[in-house]
């Protein structure tokens, strides 16, 4: 992991972090702020950095460990909080504060291009988190050789990001995890059939949310409500998901959204409406064991989705509920990291991308004339 100045990561969290001692260590690494609200959903970058600072006690089964000698590193983590930079430094291109975000991207690129390890690989063995759809919005294309950690590919052309080289991360859930979900009859105790609470004005595929509102808002056992993410509303969403059998997950501005992972940690069976969605850890986790999928055409057919859910076998739902309880720890982000939590799952995904990066590096070197041959010429 590169030792970048604090302004690239924890310096954006608050003034005390910006002015704190350098370099950042496990002892002075600031906790994620409890009042961050919806910003938390894009905090994967923070938890990955924290996991590399964690020294451990020697007994953990860890997927990634920071080494002091870069020559022995298999990969290089770039701790730039690009999502937090977007959320902190202006949300549109006309905001003067946006220039701070752009300048950080420029400086980071200048730093990397001076690194012999970045030059050696062309950035192919460098890991860079970009989980907000607008993260690194100005110069993203300059880093498309690296292993990017994204939440989906909704804003990325195929020439820049793809599942063959990049890693799909979950959003970090913003509702509290349901840790004591031990109802004797969970199906009957969840009285709402289908739950959705969120912004209905979205872009691209997310326009389906307004159409679904017209179909679902007047049904007695369906809760479909327009809402924004305030602390109070997050609490209400927590209660709503815990009291519902199914939680609706239509596309947002991109195919995925935080709502899916809120549902998972609430043990509310996700109903995923999408014609194209990439999900985290799909080579390890079979989402069909705890989720139901509908195409956009099916979901927009009046009565179809609700009728299918009402006819869904109770025993099958209970099995899905149990599976959600079994796998929800894979979507937890915490410090210190724990075995098989979200951080460790992501590092394992990164390790699986490295052979392809190594192959690309070897092939690119074949095309270069070595120094000793140039001298001979």
UniProtKB/TrEMBL annotation:
It is found in: Golgi apparatus membrane. Transmembrane segments: none annotated. Keywords: Glycosyltransferase, Golgi apparatus, Signal-anchor, Transferase, Transmembrane. InterPro entries: Exostosin, Exostosin_GT47. One of its GO terms (molecular function) is glycosyltransferase activity. It holds the Pfam family Exostosin_GT47. Its main location: Golgi. Residues 1-309 form the Exostosin GT47 domain. GO terms for cellular component: Golgi membrane. It is a single-pass type II membrane protein. Belongs to the glycosyltransferase 47 family. PANTHER family: EXOSTOSIN HEPARAN SULFATE GLYCOSYLTRANSFERASE -RELATED (PTHR11062), OJ1485_B09.5 PROTEIN (PTHR11062:SF48). This is Exostosin GT47 domain-containing protein. The lineage of its organism: Eukaryota, Viridiplantae, Streptophyta, Embryophyta, Tracheophyta.
């Amino acid at each position: 992991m590169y030792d970048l100045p604090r302004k690239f990561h924890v310096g954006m969290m608050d003034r005390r972090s910006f002015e704190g001692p350098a370099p950042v260590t496990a002892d002075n690494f600031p906790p994620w702020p409890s009042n961050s609200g919806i910003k938390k959903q894009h905090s994967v970058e923070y938890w990955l950095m924290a996991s590399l600072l964690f020294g451990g006690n020697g007994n953990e089964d860890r997927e990634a460990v920071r080494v002091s000698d870069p020559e022995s590193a298999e990969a290089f983590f770039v701790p730039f909080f690009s999502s937090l930079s977007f959320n902190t430094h202006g949300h549109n291109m006309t905001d003067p504060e946006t220039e701070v975000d752009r300048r950080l991207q420029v400086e980071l690129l200048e730093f990397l291009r001076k690194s012999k390890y970045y030059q050696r690989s062309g950035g192919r063995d460098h890991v860079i988190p970009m989980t907000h759809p607008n993260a690194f919005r100005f110069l993203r294309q300059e880093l498309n050789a690296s292993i990017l950690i994204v939440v989906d590919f909704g804003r990325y052309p195929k020439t820049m990001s793809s599942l063959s080289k990049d890693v799909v991360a979950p959003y970090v859930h913003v509702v509290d995890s349901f840790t004591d979900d031990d109802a004797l009859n969970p199906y009957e105790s969840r009285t709402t059939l289908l739950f959705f609470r969120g912004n209905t004005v979205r872009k691209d595929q997310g326009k389906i949310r307004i159409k679904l509102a017209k179909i679902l808002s007047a049904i007695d056992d369906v809760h479909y409500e327009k809402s924004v993410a305030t602390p109070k509303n997050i609490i209400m969403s927590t209660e709503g998901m815990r009291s519902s059998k199914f939680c609706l997950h239509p596309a947002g501005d991109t195919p995925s959204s935080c709502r899916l992972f809120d549902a998972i940690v609430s043990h509310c069976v996700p109903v995923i409406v999408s014609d194209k969605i990439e999900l985290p850890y799909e080579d390890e986790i079979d989402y069909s064991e705890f989720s139901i999928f509908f195409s956009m055409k099916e979901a927009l057919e009046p009565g179809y989705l609700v009728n299918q859910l009402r006819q869904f076998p109770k025993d099958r739902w209970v099995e899905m509920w149990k599976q959600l309880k079994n796998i929800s720890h894979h979507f937890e982000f915490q410090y210190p990291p724990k075995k098989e939590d979200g951080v460790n799952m992501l590092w394992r995904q990164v390790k699986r991308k490295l052979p392809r990066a190594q192959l690309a590096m070897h092939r690119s070197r074949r095309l270069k004339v070595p120094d000793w041959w140039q001298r001979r010429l």
